[in-house]
Amino acid sequence: MANEREPEIVLYDLACTKNICFSPVVWIIRLMLNYKQVPYKTTFLEFPDIEPTLKGLGLLSHDCTSKHKYTVPTIHHVRTNTYIMDSLRIAQFIEATYPDPPVPLTSELGSEIVAKARCALSPAFRTSLMPREINILSPRSQEYFRRTREASLGHPLEDLLVPEKEEQAWEAVADAMRALGELMLTNKAEGPFVLGASPGYTDFFITGSLQTAREIDEAVFQRCIKYPGFKEVYEACLPYMEKRD
Ligand SMILES: N[C@@H](CCC(=O)N[C@@H](CS)C(=O)NCC(=O)O)C(=O)O
């Protein structure tokens, strides 16, 4: 079994009170590692500990255009003593280091889906998930999350939770969600994944986002999977979601 072997990677993940992964970008990496059966162990970090811990490991901060200077996922590849921060760079490293089975990182269809998902899902997720994420954080992380997110929103998190506003946010993205789901079904004759028979980066991107929704609020997850396409991809990825801590 993969996870009985000596860990080859330490995956730095975001802590929550459920002690499981709930970050969409960390899930992308976790799905890749689980699919490729790479043995790894997780170190969960509370929000306020991300920067001091990663700085202490010698990592350089993201450039000043990034929202946060230090982020998870970050990995330590033990054998080569390599530290990498940022999900895309980590995905490229994993693909280069563990090419079998392959996880296609780019495709025309995949790029279109990821770009459209960012547009369609982001506003609705921000409205529904950001104010509820605090419910699964420790008191220290809650304080950090509220302070940083309210500074960027310019208002209290709870202002997003007005029911009519939430409904409007989902209605506004309904057509885009439907179109996105249809795109995901493009290759359904060949298999349940975006590119057909086997998973790629896009499937893990979509599944990671859906799993985040599910961990924060099951109702938000249910809102998404009622659109055709989402449930198919998510269920096809379930075998690679077993290791979540
Ligand atoms: N572009 C980065 C984004 C990563 C990111 O924003 N991660 C969040 C957790 S989901 C984080 O570490 N935030 C640090 C903070 O809020 O200080 C990636 O894809 O790795």
Structural summary, described in words:
The protein starts with 8 loop residues before the first strand and ends in an 8-residue tail after the last helix. The mean pLDDT is 96. The chain contains nine helices and four strands. Helix 4 (108-133) packs antiparallel against helix 6 (163-184) and helix 4 (108-133) runs parallel beside helix 7. With 245 residues, it is of the alpha+beta class. Strands 2-1-3-4 form a four-stranded mixed β-sheet. The protein folds into two domains: 2-97, Glutaredoxin, CATH 3.40.30.10; 108-239, Glutathione S-transferase Yfyf (Class Pi), Chain A, domain 2 (Up-down Bundle). A hairpin with a 4-residue loop joins strand 3 and strand 4. The protein binds glutathione. Residues 14, 23, 25, 47, 50, 68, 71-73, 86-87, 148 line the site of glutathione.
